Amino acid sequence: MPAPLFKRWVPPKQVVKSASPVDVVANSPNPSRTTAESTPVKTNLIVDETQMEPPKSIKKPKKRKRSAGANEEEEETSKKHKAIFSKFEKASKLAEARSQREEDEPTDGAEVQEAEELHDLQPMPQPAPVPEPAFEPTFSTLPTWLAQPVTVDASKTLPFTELGVDPFYTKKLEKQGFKEALAVQTALLPMLHPGFEQHLGDICVSAKTGSGKTLAYLLPIIEALKDRAVPVLSAIIVVPSRQLVNQALQVAEELCAGTKIKVGTALGNVAFASEQKQLVRLRAQYDPTAAKELHEKASRQLQTGSVERGGIFDDLKDMPLDHVPRYDSGVDILICTPGRLVEHIDNTTGFLLNAVRWLVIDEADQLLNQNFQGWATVLMGALHGETPVDFLSAQERIRKREGDANSIWSVALPARRQLTKVVLSATMEKDLTKLGTLKLKRPKLVVIQDEVAETQPLDNEENVFELPSTLDEFAVHVGDGSNKPLHLLHVLLNFVFPGIQTDVGAKEDNSDSDSDSDTDSSSEDSSDGEKDRSVADHISRVLIFTKSTESASRLSHLLAVLEPSFKPYLKTMTRALTADASRKLLKSFSTGAVKILIASDAASRGLDIPSISHVINYDIPTSITSYVHRVGRTARAGKQGQAWTLFTKTEAAWFLKQVAKGDSVKRQNKKVKRMEWKESTVTANGKKKTYRAALKQLESAVTGHAEAE
Ligand SMILES: Nc1ncnc2c1ncn2[C@@H]1O[C@H](COP(=O)(O)OP(=O)(O)OP(=O)(O)O)[C@@H](O)[C@H]1O
């Protein structure tokens, strides 16, 4: 029943003359509630003080005689009160009648339920949720050029002739076996060639490993410089390692053969002074006015003591009368590592970048992440900064003077150089802070991907990397990793060089009482009859990655002991190798004289050996990017390849979740295949014993070495 609107005031009927709590019959506000009236309710009655008898000790006030006027006043007051009371009683009766009516009125079910719910502890009924439309961002935190790249189908190929490539070069390419331009080349060549499709701005390229990026940027540059007679530094190609400098140099030299284009390198493999001589040629130019100015400047600097050692004033000393030093470039194209480039910018007098028309940054994500010596900032300063007047050619001086004076003659001068930056990687990151250091102008991002139709969300800032479609991936759980070399051996013997005549355990088969080696000998034993091939008979070539060059050396030693037939074909690429030695090693690996190459991550980027059939991650890579580059050493330019990864119990979660099943790595309808075999399989046939012996040998070799030191 709903509560009455207000509590009715009832005038006191009876006064109980007692100071202590007493039992009283409660006065019900509702006369109809007989039960309440008849039930005595024990309550503490607070008695009206005015109606209580005063204590005897307190004197009663003396009664005053009432006057006739006072009586009249009292009567009037009592009349007023009565009127108020009667009005009040009427209103109370009306309210009661109304509430009674409401009670008696029939109500439908819904109302009853509602009333019930109001008095219950059940949650209040809520309105049905309004369906929210799926969030489709209409904005992006990325700039348009990054959020909406130009996508090119990875399977798109075109004859080089259709791309406007000069027949001089198409013939060369055909000789190398390159019949058609690969997707990245079909996209980049028109953008870099002069013509309608040329992009007058900078270009970022994201294309899979082994997709032909090197030729894509070198060919248009070399074509444009074809008729060059006198070298002018026109293109700088920055790559992260010496090996990659040599690799790009090889491609460039093949293309430049038969032209006067000069390709130079700066990678620190020769003395700095001889590199300087290769890059900059000093000559004396007869120019009495310039010579006078320069001598005056030199004497002023001598007075203030601010003459630079090895600078232009040093060269001035050796000049004949009225001659000034002039610096010509020794190369048209410079391929270099960033560190050495910075050294030349800082220390090579006359090494000027004011004529550079192409700046290529290959493996850009790695270079920008490592930004050693602040190379990008130094390079941008040299590229975009003003060239000191003393180093300008006569033509450049006129242009500068006319330009400064805003002369009409400046329009008659040759146009300013157009600088184009080409930034490439297989794992291009959409990191604006890093890309910002390159000061890109009107940039365009070109993405070569398998499924062009698959549009990425507008605000997708995640970096997604694609693997070659010709790559097959395998993963092997190696328990706690204590027998990892034996697992590797198992992969090599069964999947890379299957059926070879193994040396291991043959002599010890029966004598070996090792508990680990007496079970499950299924895999190798079953193929014993077919073991008639040697490593040399196989065309397979395997690149094994370890976490460091030290572990590469250790593994190399262990493998040679575990499987002696591998020894003549097994080599390690360490940091200790000179540039020449590592070039020779890579050559023998590509010819097949070496079949197993063990290396650290240093070899994971850009290395192009088309004949690598297998990559094995002996030590798990430290990032998804590293995985993509490591496995990208195989399955290059449309060839088949396999990538194997050995992972331990502790590495399983990261590898399986992030690499094998994560969204950051795109595989075309392919999955990483889990390969499983028992631990006893890899330790069988005395291999465990041989492994222990190999470990002991390694230990004594290391200790001996340490003692010798
Ligand atoms: N048009 C072509 N046809 C056939 N093969 C080609 C063509 N262009 C390049 N190649 C070959 O493709 C292979 C990979 O090229 P390249 O080294 O330039 O790849 P990449 O994209 O730079 O790879 P990575 O990102 O791993 O450095 C090379 O062996 C190269 O000779």
Automatic annotation (TrEMBL):
Report domain Helicase C-terminal positions: 534-683
Alphabetical list of SUPFAM superfamilies matching this protein: P-loop containing nucleoside triphosphate hydrolases (SSF52540)
Entry-linked Pfam families: DEAD, Helicase_C
User: What is the species of this protein?
Assistant: Neocucurbitaria cava
Q: Which reaction does it catalyse?
A: ATP + H2O = ADP + phosphate + H(+)
Compositionally biased intervals (Basic residues): 57-67
Of which family is this protein a member? Belongs to the DEAD box helicase family.
Query: Which stretches are tagged as biased composition: Polar residues?
Result: 27-42
Q: Which residues form the Helicase ATP-binding domain?
A: 194-446
Bias type Basic and acidic residues, positions: 87-101
- Annotated region Disordered: the residues are 18-113, 506-534
Q: Which gene encodes it?
A: DBP6
Which Enzyme Commission number(s) are listed?
Answer: 3.6.4.13
Q: What is this protein called?
A: ATP-dependent RNA helicase
